[in-house]
Amino acid sequence: MIDALLNFDFVRYSLISGLLIGFVAPFIGAFIVVRRLSLIADALSHVTLGGISFGMFLITVIPAVAFINPMWFGILYAVVGALLIEKLRTSYSNYQEIAIPIIMSAGIALSAIFISLADGFNQEIIGLLFGSISAVTLSDTITIFIITLIVVIFILSLYKELFLLSFDEEYSAVIGIPKWIQFLFIVIVAMVISASMRVVGILLVSALITLPVAISLRLTKAFKQLILFSIVIGEIAVIAGLVLAFYLNLSPGGVIVILLVLGLALVMLIQKVRSHSVKGVKTHEDR
Length: 287
Description:
Elements: H1 2-7, H2 9-34, H3 40-61, H4 70-91, H5 99-117, H6 123-130, H7 138-157, H8 159-167, H9 169-174, H10 179-200, H11 205-217, H12 223-248, H13 252-286
Main location: membrane
Subcellular location: Cell membrane; Membrane
Transmembrane segments: 12-34, 46-65, 71-86, 98-118, 138-159, 171-193, 199-219, 226-247, 253-270
């Protein structure tokens, strides 16, 4: 792995991008999970695929635009999809969750249409679906770095407002927290999902956003600790997943997600064993 890092640019780009994604995805994931919007990541990932497939179709029709990275089309589609979700949530105030399947369905439909128009599946599409170490370029790494920087500045600048929005949306409206913060938050989520797709894959990106938080929820109750634990777990999973994927020639996204699932199962098992042990001790003392 050390030799590969020294000799191959794509390995270095993948590791740097992975470290950035392992940080920023769980960072914003803590706010998403607490707001009970975990499925929004799935919806926006499918919309992102629609944007990327549109970009690939556009390149086949107009070769002159081949210099444009299809990832930018994915980001654009994800941002528009995020804004539409927020608009639909406002329109269906009593059935807010319906916004997510509506946008997800539209994203899947657009993906199917543009992929077929762009001559069907190719290796690049497969890499985007499940992640690929060799797919990450210098341009992708720079884009991911910029998005990470934007997310960090946004959350640190508006932490108090985002905290209130996450735990009590109605109260935040009563005390006058501006609506644009909520819209901007959804846009930021869309950008993170678009940035994560190269390393983790579009179909698995929501897992990297939610699973580290799911594990951390079982380990801590304080929100700042939740964020910290989620980031640490995300980084460990990404680094271990990239290393294993490199040596085993597997999809990094799949390996990263399986490691997180195993981590969650292990934490739940340990807590269950401890719970039974405590109950056993109490029963023995009662006797």
